[in-house]
Design brief:
Structural class of chain A: mainly alpha
Structural class of chain B: mainly alpha
Oligomer: heterodimer
CATH topology of chain B: MetI-like fold
Radius of gyration of chain B: 24 Å
Distance between the termini of chain A: 29 Å
CATH superfamily of chain B: MetI-like
Strand order of the largest sheet of chain B: 2-3
Distance between the termini of chain B: 5 Å
Helix content of chain A: over 70%
Shape of chain A: flat
Shape of chain B: flat
CATH superfamily of chain A: MetI-like
Number of domains of chain B: 1
Order of helices and strands of chain B: EHEEHHHHHHHHHHH
Number of helices of chain B: 12
CATH architecture of chain B: Orthogonal Bundle
């Protein structure tokens, strides 16, 4: 037996595995390499088949950064992604904390109420959400009260009053702040905490806030890392909602802004488009590199065995 | 496990306060808009003019009969085909690659690294790059094809080719995500059966069929459903950047809407585009909601047996 096992370990790697993997790596990575190379070329070079690294990288970047407002889009997208991710993590920590460490009525119902929202991705809500977010609010307080006390109007008529915040940054942030995925992940993780730790904490007389931030958060650091990675990329990728609700460049996100470079002018300046694509992929790549290990551990914790 | 196992605190109000922010956001920005979308489906509503008139079930009737129906039915068919190809190709390729990079081979770590980075790729970036690569005039693919075979396919102007370019862009974008989950799952499965099989001299193929594939099935189910929702919703950006829903197919069946128009894209076009027929778009959304609901229930039904949601 031992002999057999050693033999297997000393076996050479089958060459076909390397061939399949090398071809796959080429196919998966080539579009990115292509993008990076093309982002360094000038407008004349970019439409030729040449794959030589050009010298126009900085002038391309400067061009999109200023003329195509990429600096605004980049700042917007970064701040949206950080604010929403932080909000999602904190709000889900709060909710999961209540669901696991407290006894109260309607617990099952509230958990189901949160989890059911997984069925409603933001894309499916755009018609209703657009009106709720962008319709003008009631002009007077009494009008508002009359409306909200009339269930027929409030529930069964098309949206009459909204928040009047269409085309603002808040319109992008608020609808995303809650996270059913986050509540689910944290709840799974909290339930796996041994009861002895909870009892010890209670004996020491810590209050709920101390328990949450001094004990739970440090114990959940990999789950937080995993959730941060998932949500950052999710927000960074948002496209349809910003495209609909935002009209001004000053609040627009980078994914929609990138498409604007392609749509501008009579003929497409592919060198600028490729520079834009390259810039757009950098922040999520950095976050991914930073949180990958955390994600692997956090996922291992929450996964079922 | 008892759901009150760790419930060490007793308080009347505090747990509700902890749950309040999440609940408020969900009620106001998910449940209420969902209800309002449903209500809208009973109205004739113009986005640009802002007019509304109650018309009962007419929007739903128009989905299946009358002038608007062929476009809707063609779109449903295309959505299913798109989801089918994206999910099947995406899952099989990523499972194969994840398993191969988990073999004890030289450089496995680097292969993994080079295959998972598309996790950070967004749909809009993926389709931007593809729209250049497959540009019929200046794209690299056609430059090479013309030089070698002297052909110049209209990748984004031929309806069938455009459909498959969109499928490939969607698969490429999601590979990193799928491979990451498969690798994470592979690291967590017990290695004992695999080692036992190795000692018994099982071939790679039979190890894969009899051991790895079944052990990865919970992850496959999870990914099956995330990939379906991905192909239904996140593909919007891919289509918007790459083809804008076009190009039009051929008569007699495929010439009602563009070949790459999926249900999500059609909802956007009908609701916010030229016709701005929000009521009709809402009726289409209702159909999409039902599809998602069935998928989700199916997911909870199957995964629920593996992951205990009631712990």
């Amino acid at each position: 037996m031992m002999f057999n096992k050693n033999k297997i370990k000393k076996q050479k790697d089958p060459i076909w595995i390397h061939i399949i993997l090398i071809i796959s790596v080429f196919l998966v990575c080539f579009p990115l390499v292509f993008t990076i190379i093309k982002s360094t070329q000038s407008l004349v070079e970019v439409t030729t088949p040449s794959l030589k690294i050009g010298t126009s990288f900085f002038s391309n970047i400067k061009h999109i950064w200023i003329d195509y407002h990429m600096h605004t889009y980049m700042l917007n997208s970064l701040s949206y992604a950080f604010i929403i991710t932080l909000g999602k993590v904190v709000l889900s920590l709060f909710a999961a904390n209540a669901l696991v460490f407290y006894q109260f009525r309607f617990k099952k119902f509230i958990f189901a109420f949160i989890i059911i929202t997984l069925m409603f991705p933001i894309e499916i809500l755009i018609l209703g959400l657009f009106e709720v977010v962008s319709n003008a609010p009631a002009s007077s307080f009494s009008e508002f009260i009359l409306w909200i006390l009339n269930p027929m109007e409030l529930l069964f008529a098309p949206t009459k009053y909204g928040f009047g915040i269409g085309d603002t940054k808040i319109a992008i942030i608020i609808p995303f702040l809650a996270s059913a995925t986050g509540v689910f992940l944290f709840r799974q993780q909290f339930l796996s905490i041994p009861i002895s730790i909870c009892d010890a904490a209670k004996m020491d007389g810590v209050n709920s806030f101390q328990f949450l931030f001094r004990i739970l958060v440090p114990m959940s650091i990999h789950t937080i890392g995993a959730l941060t990675l998932i949500q950052f990329v999710y927000i960074w990728d948002q496209y349809i909602w910003p495209r609909i609700i935002i009209q001004h460049d000053s609040a627009q996100v980078i994914q929609v802004g990138l498409n604007a470079i392609q749509s501008a002018g009579d003929s497409i300046q592919w060198n600028l488009v490729m520079a834009g694509a390259f810039v757009t992929i950098i922040p999520p790549l950095v976050i991914f590199a930073l949180l990958y290990n955390s994600f692997m551990k956090g996922y291992a914790l929450s996964s079922n065995k | 496990m008892n759901q009150n196992k760790n419930a060490i605190f007793k308080a009347k109000v505090i747990p509700y306060l902890y749950l309040l922010p999440t609940s408020l956001v969900l009620i106001i920005f998910i449940y209420y808009p969902a209800l309002k979308t449903f209500v809208l489906a009973f109205y004739r509503s113009n986005f640009i003019l802002g007019t509304r008139k109650f018309i009962g079930l007419e929007n739903f009737k128009n989905l299946f009969t009358g002038a608007l129906a062929p476009g809707f039915i063609q779109t449903c068919f295309q959505t299913l085909a798109f989801a089918f190809f994206v999910v099947i190709l995406g899952l099989s390729i990523s499972m194969l690659l994840a398993v191969l990079t988990s073999e004890k081979i030289k450089g496995a770590k680097y292969y993994r690294l080079l295959l998972i980075w598309p996790f950070a790729l967004s749909p809009a970036v993926a389709s931007t790059v593809f729209s250049f690569l497959f540009n019929p005039e200046v794209g690299l693919v056609n430059t090479i094809l013309q030089a070698v075979f002297n052909i110049k396919p209209g990748w984004l102007t031929n309806p069938y080719l455009a459909f498959f370019v969109a499928v490939f862009a969607a698969v490429w974008k999601n590979l990193g995500y799928n491979i990451v989950f498969y690798i994470a799952a592979f690291q967590n499965i017990s290695k004992d059966p695999l080692e036992a099989a190795e000692i018994d001299g099982a071939s790679r193929f039979s190890k894969f069929i009899h051991i790895i594939f079944p052990l990865l099935s919970p992850t496959s189910f999870f990914l099956l459903f995330t990939n379906i929702t991905y192909s239904l919703f996140d593909s919007f950006a891919i289509i918007d950047v790459l083809t804008k829903g076009g190009p039009m197919g051929q008569p007699p069946f495929m010439d009602n809407v563009g070949m790459t128009t999926t249900l999500m894209y059609k909802i956007f076009l009908d609701g916010f585009g030229g016709s701005s027929n929000m009521g009709f778009a809402a009726a289409e959304t209702f159909i999409l909601m039902i599809i998602v609901m069935i998928i989700t229930m199916f997911q909870f039904g199957i995964v629920g047996k593996k992951v205990n949601y009631d712990v």
